[in-house]
Amino acid sequence: MERVKSCIPGLDELTGGGFPSNHLILVTGTSGTGKTVLGTQFAYYGVKKYKENGVYLSFEEPAEAIKENARGFGWDFAELEKAGKFRFIKYDPYHIEDVFDILESEIRNIKATRVVVDSISALGLHVRDDSELRRMIFNLSLTLRKLNCTSVIISEIVPGTHGLSRYGVEEFVSDGVIVLYYERIETTFARTLHVWKMRGSKHSEKLHPYKIDRSGITIYPEEEAFIKER
Ligand SMILES: Nc1ncnc2c1ncn2[C@@H]1O[C@H](COP(=O)(O)OP(=O)(O)OP(=O)(O)O)[C@@H](O)[C@H]1O
Ligand SMILES: [Mg+2]
Fold this sequence. Notes:
- By secondary structure, the chain is of the alpha/beta class.
- It has a domain at 24-180: Rossmann fold (3-Layer(aba) Sandwich).
- Helices cover 33% and strands 26% of the residues.
- It has a 9-stranded mixed beta sheet, with helices on both faces. A two-stranded antiparallel ribbon has the order 1-2.
- The protein is globular and about 45 Å long.
- The chain starts with a strand and ends in an 11-residue tail after the last strand.
């Protein structure tokens, strides 16, 4: 199976060498766990190290805010945009159904093979009807597969619930699921990551610690983490 490097140090060791190419990987977790950092890191180094162009669709933070935060890690998306290797998608919230056509044409324009959608949960703020939203998520997955993109789709875990995603469909249209946790252990909070599923891959079944610092996310594949019973 052909694989795409995640560009997150330590992660490929957990998934059998990277994300299977053309797969949809759901990255989910509660607020502040680093989902956006993971998505931007995957996209930025995809272009920088592997010449794989990327498109970022944000329903949450404005593109400018994402770029500004990325600069803090030393990731200059403006430079990639100027070179025609990267696009942030602008959409009209009053015509939200058009956004996936825009996504498709931008992917084709710059021949992108990496896509980040951040987040499906925020898309739900624009689309009130649940069955319509599920249909959009399903169609999005078909489009990304058709265009041969390897995609990171971000969703959200609602604290105190047991589901993997906000709408409960995201994990079923995805080929892989990565869960990020931020949980209290005595007097401190620990960041841990679990590869919930990765189709076609022998993946780690353990919880691994990770950190976020000035160079982004780093996972410790050799270490196991303990968090309290959920
Ligand atoms: N330069 C940095 N150094 C260390 N930690 C950082 C740095 N930048 C961000 N972080 C950590 O990352 C967290 C934010 O990560 P991120 O925005 O990716 O979370 P998220 O899961 O996307 O959250 P949300 O669900 O609110 O969108 C911050 O709360 C902080 O703990
Ligand atoms: Mg975010």
